[in-house]
Write a structure and sequence with these properties.
This protein has a five-stranded mixed β-sheet, covered by helices on one side. The protein has a four-stranded mixed β-sheet with strand order 1-4-3-2, covered by helices on one side. The protein folds into two domains: 1-67, 2,3-Dihydroxybiphenyl 1,2-Dioxygenase, domain 1 (Roll); 73-166, 2,3-Dihydroxybiphenyl 1,2-Dioxygenase, domain 1 (Roll), CATH 3.10.180. It has helices at residues 20-30, 105-114, 180-189; strands at 12-17, 35-41, 46-54, 57-63, 96-99, 123-125, 132-133, 142-148, 154-160. It starts with 11 loop residues before the first strand and ends with a helix. Strand 2 (35-41) and strand 3 form a beta hairpin. The protein is globular and about 50 Å long. It is of the alpha+beta class and 190 residues long. Residues 9-160 form the VOC domain. This is VOC family protein. Residues 168-190 are annotated as: Disordered.
């Protein structure tokens, strides 16, 4: 429980779209998220649209007429995790995971495939060295699958499969000094 601030979840996550019409077609048409608010930004700066993704939370998109193109592997992963693509730059948005009911998880994957969306295999995330189990068992803490929106934004449908306890927080956090890219940059300037 947060003793500092009374947070009620994510109000909205703001991403950038290259084509707002196509974004509406995907998020409302394919994923069924109602478009609940649209704004034209002042001075012709662009647009800002909000989609209800459930639980009082929203996914929002900016459209900027002069937005640079995405750089796969920098601004977002170049592909899906099962393809070996997970890396994105510091400060980037790696992916958005939407919580779905565990009892509807496999049906939702099938439904997206029927709508023509390319989806990853189901991943059973666990604490094994590879982080993924072939089959469901008590050690799996979340099941998920990944797919991309029309702009290459990595999305995930995920469902928790067990309750966390104190044993789930057991890793020493890495620091900036642990980054190989930082070490290589320092060696080049030395």
């Amino acid at each position: 429980m947060n003793t500092e601030f009374e947070l009620g979840g994510i109000n909205h996550l703001a991403l950038v779209s290259s084509d707002m019409k196509r974004t509406i077609d995907f998020y409302s048409g394919v994923l069924g998220m109602p478009l609940i608010k649209t704004l034209d930004l002042p001075g012709g700066m662009g647009q800002h649209f909000f989609f209800d993704c459930g639980g009082g939370d929203c996914v929002a998109f900016f459209w900027f007429p002069d937005a640079p193109d995405a750089v796969p592997g920098v601004s977002a992963p170049a592909g899906r995790p099962e393809q070996g693509e997970l890396l994105s730059a510091v400060g980037s948005m790696n992916h958005v995971a939407f919580h779905v009911p565990v009892e509807k998880f496999e049906d939702y994957r099938h439904k997206l495939k029927e709508k023509g969306v390319t989806v990853s295999p189901i991943l059973n995330h666990d604490d094994s060295p590879m982080g993924i189990a072939r089959d469901m068992y008590d050690g799996v803490f979340v099941r998920s699958f990944y797919f991309m929106d029309p702009d290459g934004i990595l999305l995930e449908f995920a469902c928790w499969t067990r309750t966390f306890d104190e044993s789930d927080v057991s890793h020493e956090p890495k620091t900036d000094a642990d980054r190989t890219v930082r070490k290589e940059a320092n060696a080049a300037t030395a």
